[in-house]
Amino acid sequence: MNHFAKATSITTKVGLTHSLKNLIWFANVDIDTFYPRCFDMGLPEEFDDFTQEFKATKAQSFVKSYVRVMRETFDSGNLPTSPLDKELVECALFVCQKRIRDLDELIDDPTAFEALVSDAEWRILGADELTEESLAQKKHTDWMKKNDFKMNPQKKKRKKKRAVQV
Predict the structure, then answer these.
(1) pLDDT of 86-113, one tens digit each?
(2) Cβ(9)–Cβ(19) below 8 Å
(3) Phi, psi (degrees; rounded to nearest 5) at 86
(4) Given CB 3.0 to 4.6 Å as the disulfide criterion, which of 78, 101, 110, 145 pairs with 105?
């Protein structure tokens, strides 16, 4: 099939993705029901969509972690405690609620086309993300550990063989 001219719209991953995303205009089909989420990182608007999806997924993971910890705590019969910060859980829950709003609510909301995760919410949710400084520090630490081992290898003690006298 890929021997035909201009067949990239169905023979490449990006072409197939764009074709399926345009399917909504030709038939009332939502590709999210049968095709995995994917983004063309070469397009600025899809890069922004990926960024928002990443941030929303992180919020969802915090909510799932909180629910798992609370379920385990209640099952064990102990008092409910969570290792997650209350502000973090509330922020994550708020983002998840924004994500699952009904279409009728979105139509009436003038702020519906703003970012799903605001910068203020990301400062809370992304506080544990690696920054350029922490990545540089980690790389330096890893390099030092690796080179320190090469410079000071632990010498294995060898047992001297004793000459056997007869």
Answers:
(1) 889 999 999 999 888 887 888 888 877 7
(2) yes
(3) -60, -40
(4) 101
Highest mean pLDDT among 18-22, 44-48, 71-75: 44-48
Amino acid making up residue 44: P
Query: What whole-number distance in Å separates Cα of residue 162 and Cα of residue 32?
Result: 75
Token reading at 63: 């909510």
> Is 70 within 8 Å of 80 (Cβ atoms)?
yes
Residue 65 token pair: 């972690």
Amino acid present at 163: A
Residues constituting the chain: 166
Q: Do 63 and 89 meet the contact criterion of CB atoms below 8 Å apart?
A: yes
Distance from C-alpha of 140 to C-alpha of 150, rounded to nearest angstrom: 15
- CA dist 57 to 28, 37, 47, 160, 161, Å? 27, 12, 15, 61, 63
